Structures are given as C-alpha cells and as structure tokens.
Amino acid sequence: MKAAVLKKIQTPLVLEELSNREAKPGHVIVELRTASLNRRDDWITRGLYPGIQVPAIMGSDGAGIVLEVGPGVSGDWLGQEVILYPGIHWGDCEEAQSSTFQVLGMPTDGTFATQIMASEAALHKKHRHLNWDESAALPLAGLTAWRAVFKQARLQPGETILITGVGGGVAALALQFAVHAGGQVWVTSSSKEKIEQAIAMGAKGGSNYHSEDWYRSVLDQAGAPQVIIDGAGGKGYGRLIEIVAPGGRIVNYGATAGYPDKVDLFKIFWKQIRLQGSTMGSPSDFQAMHAMVESKAIKPPISGTFALKEVNHALDQMRLGTHFGKIVLRCG
Ligand SMILES: NC(=O)c1ccc[n+]([C@@H]2O[C@H](COP(=O)([O-])OP(=O)(O)OC[C@H]3O[C@@H](n4cnc5c(N)ncnc54)[C@H](OP(=O)(O)O)[C@@H]3O)[C@@H](O)[C@H]2O)c1
Description:
Layout: E1 2-6, E2 14-17, E3 27-36, H1 39-45, E4 56-57, E5 61-69, E6 81-84, E7 87-88, E8 102-103, E9 115-119, E10 123-125, H2 132-137, H3 139-152, E11 160-163, H4 169-180, E12 184-189, H5 192-200, E13 205-208, H6 214-222, E14 227-230, H7 236-243, E15 249-252, H8 265-270, E16 274-277, H9 283-295, E17 302-307, H10 311-320, E18 326-330
Helix pairs in contact: 3-4, 3-9
C-alpha cells in the first residue's frame, strides 16, 4: 500500500510504499477511494497538536470499498462501499468521549493511504446520492457540525443562528444542516465571495470578520442571534458574548484564531447565556448525522481535489485559506 507519512514535524509528508495491513479480529481492510483534509492535519504537521507521535499516516476522513474482513466480521461487508466513523473508543457516555478516545490518523494509521484497517464498528454504508469525493468530505466535519448545531445548541426552527468562518469545512456543513432545520442562518467570513456562496446555499446574509465593526453589522442585519456556532475563538469570541441574545447559546468547537483576549463574565451571567464546548461526536451522533444527510440529500461542498501524491499541495491550499468547504484527496 501507499501512504502519506509524517516522519518529522514541520516537514512535508512523504509518500511511502508500506506493507499491506492484515485485518485483526473485528476489523476490515478498506481500499480507500478518497480522503479529506481537516485543520487537524495542518496543526499536526506544524507541531501544534497534543501528543504527536511520528512516523504517522495522516488523515481522519475516508471512504472506500471493503476488501478483506478479519475474524469475527460478517462476510456481507466484502465489496461494500463505506464511509468511516473518524473516532476510536468514544465510550458509553453521550455527553463526552472517554479518556481513551482517539481521532483516526496519528497515532493510529490514517486515511491518506490506499488502504486502511478499520474496526467493523466504524463502517457506515456510503450514501447513494454522494460521489466518492463528497463521501470522504462528510465524516469528521459533518459529525462535528451535527453535534454542535443539534445536540449542543438544540437549534429550533425559526431561530436566528450565526455561523462564524463559514468557509471552513465544519462551518459549511453547519450552514447546510441549520438551513435544512429551518434556522434563519447568518454567517461571518473573510471574503465577500464566500458570503455570497453561503447566501446561495440558504444563508440570509453575512459580515466580513476582518472589518472592525463586523459584530455591529451582524446585529444590524440579523438582530441578536439565539444560537452561535463558532470554530474560531480568538478576539472575536468576546464579541459573540456581546451579540448573542439573552438566554442564547454559543457553541464552540475550535480555536483557529487562538484564545479570546476577554471573556466578559458580567455579560455571561446577566444575559443568562450558555457557553458550550463541542468535540466531534459519538457513534450515535454519526448515525443521526447520516440520517439527516440521507433524508435531505445534503452534499458537502468541495473546494478542491488532489491526487494522494499531491497531499502537500492540498495542505498548502488549506493553509492559504481560500477554500470553501472541504479539500479532498483521491487515494486510488
Ligand atoms: N472539536 C472538534 O471536534 C473539532 C472538529 C473539527 C475541527 N475542529 C477545529 O475547528 C476549527 C475549524 O476546523 P475546519 O476543519 O473546519 O477548518 P478549516 O476548513 O480550515 O476552516 C477554518 C475556517 O476558520 C475561519 N476563520 C479563520 N479565522 C477566523 C476568525 N478570526 N474569525 C472567524 N472565522 C475565522 C475561516 O473562515 P472563512 O474561510 O470563511 O474566512 C476558515 O475557513 C479548527 O480550529 C479545528 O482544529 C475541532
């Protein structure tokens, strides 16, 4: 098999020929057709992620065909087209993952490869309405977006929801989920074009987070949002606390822009708002996300596809920040 391996942090991934994996009991070998990038891959290659172990085959999102089943796995899986759950050992609690939870790809073998060994429990049948690129674009971002919007924020039809940094992989899926759930969706982004793309996908409008008064512009256009879904954090986080409606919910799943410089406790208790963290999601969240994707025929937006051997260009594309949605690798 071929795989894109991180051998040393802050160096490009190296495409290597490795020996094929053998399926352990309860596991299968999937011949990967496509994988997709997440910001996590960038953080790891730059050395900005906890517990980095090298060498590591990178990649958390994958879709492909079951090539081999290990002992104890039903032969019915052979030849099935599948999407992989991107977590390992979520555990029994729906509120949060177990202490042994891992994300697929570093330290375990990831999806930037032609094959992967996956647990039978991680297999989910590919949706017929999604092509291979869209299938690999869905798992991690879709799971994170679904849990943030529905399990954590409990978005209700008709509520005003603000999604920050809509060009991001998670945010673009959160936009689609919220629109389909009947939310009045507003967005922020770094570019006019991305805001226009979000409007074409059902958003009511948006503001550019690079402008000084972006938060006032949100209030002027949308009023105070009852729900905010944020993956950026940074200085803008304090503004979210300012603009959220009294009794509102702010769900944060990432910190692309770093730590907030100010968190106004007075506003938090006076407005009776909820600040909620969210990380990926449980296997049952994954099922629920797929049920919505299937019933509403949702397709994750793809902004670029690269061959596996071009993985470093794909990572550069993500770092450039011009993408809207997901960047996909063609593995086979
Ligand atoms: N907790 C979890 O389970 C989980 C899961 C997935 C991701 N994450 C984290 O969530 C973040 C996003 O992940 P991703 O894979 O969606 O990454 P991504 O595709 O690279 O998206 C990042 C987006 O952040 C937006 N952004 C950058 N600076 C911003 C700012 N100052 N204010 C508002 N938005 C800003 C940009 O939006 P525009 O393009 O619109 O400008 C950009 O597209 C990352 O930090 C990642 O590590 C966490």
